[in-house]
Design a protein that fits this description.
By secondary structure, the chain is of the alpha/beta class. It is 46% helix and 22% strand.
């Protein structure tokens, strides 16, 4: 039997007449009679007893009616839930992010998803630029947040924001108290720098070389957290970082920063998608939330000063 056969059974039991059901369904009474005969064969017993006025349920029919009524109600609720779920974005979205963008950007995006799209799950993987590019090429991530040194030209990669470079220190140091600091002022400063080989380290070293000096590396560390903790705890140490990575420390007053100028060393924050791959509704929502979040931070990215 099909679900429509069970609905027909309940309709006959309610109206008590093959004729009335046939008229209501705009079909022949003989067709309804054949349907009932097929149902009774499938059930293995007589469902209706004919009377002078129509039909009534047999005791077996009353038993079946109770079970079918409960089952159809549960089925209707199930189908309604399935149809509603089809309208709700859901699924896992895999993101690759640079360590400096992991927090607070991903924290903000997660909070928005948790409130507005609770059925979307984030799978976040940190990595450096070349590693994230490889993950994109293999389709291991649905999208990646990257730092580029040139503006993106591909349609698979969009510019989120331009991130300047900041000289970062513990609070109270005069060199980082103003809005900007000339790159030449970095000469002789004790710096916490990323380890070689590093594209970012090479750019900093080449920039200094072009100015006629070498950067003084007191400590080398790849970890952004280590760099920030050393600077925050040492009133004589400095680091060269981007605005994403120091957002929280600036708000808490643990660090102080001034934009490096002459030259203004820019990095481009981009959102890249695989060249091949299916863009799911959940991926599209996460992509838009990332764009909205970074857009809302435009002022911070250009002037990361503690309030």
């Amino acid at each position: 039997m099909q679900i429509n056969d069970l609905r027909l059974f309940l309709e006959i039991s309610e109206l008590g007449s093959f004729t009335k059901v046939a008229a209501q369904r705009n079909t022949a009474q003989s067709y309804i009679s054949r349907q009932v005969s097929e149902m009774e064969k499938s059930c293995g017993g007589t469902l209706f007893r004919r009377t002078g006025r129509g039909v009534v349920l047999t005791e077996f029919g009353e038993h079946v009616q109770k079970r079918v009524t409960v089952w159809l109600k549960a089925s209707d609720e199930l189908f309604a839930d399935i149809q509603q779920a089809a309208k709700v974005p859901m699924g896992e979205v895999k993101l690759g992010v640079m360590p400096s963008a992991a927090h607070p950007l991903m924290t903000h995006v997660f909070k928005r998803l948790h409130l507005d799209y609770p059925k979307i799950r984030l799978n976040i993987r940190e990595g450096q630029g070349s590693e994230l590019d490889a993950l994109l090429d293999t389709g291991s991530v649905d999208m990646a947040i990257l730092f580029r040194y040139d503006k993106p030209a591909s349609q698979d990669e969009v510019l989120l924001s331009t991130a300047h470079t900041y000289l970062v220190s513990s609070p109270g140091l005069s060199l980082t108290y103003g809005d900007s600091v000339d790159f030449k002022r970095l000469e002789g400063l004790p710096l916490v720098l990323p380890r070689r080989p590093s594209h970012w380290r090479s750019i900093l070293d080449e920039t200094a070389k072009g100015k006629g000096f070498s950067l003084t590396s007191e400590v080398e560390a790849d970890s952004l957290r280590v760099q920030k903790e050393i600077v925050a705890a040492s009133p004589h140490m400095y680091a060269l970082l981007g605005p994403f990575s120091i957002d929280e420390e600036l708000r808490l007053g643990r660090l102080q920063a001034a934009k490096v100028v002459n030259p203004d060393i820019k990095r481009y924050v981009t959102l890249a998608h695989p060249k091949q791959g299916h863009f799911t509704p959940a991926s599209r929502i996460v992509s838009n939330l990332i764009k909205e979040t970074v857009s809302g931070w435009h002022g911070l990215l250009n002037s990361p000063k503690a309030p």
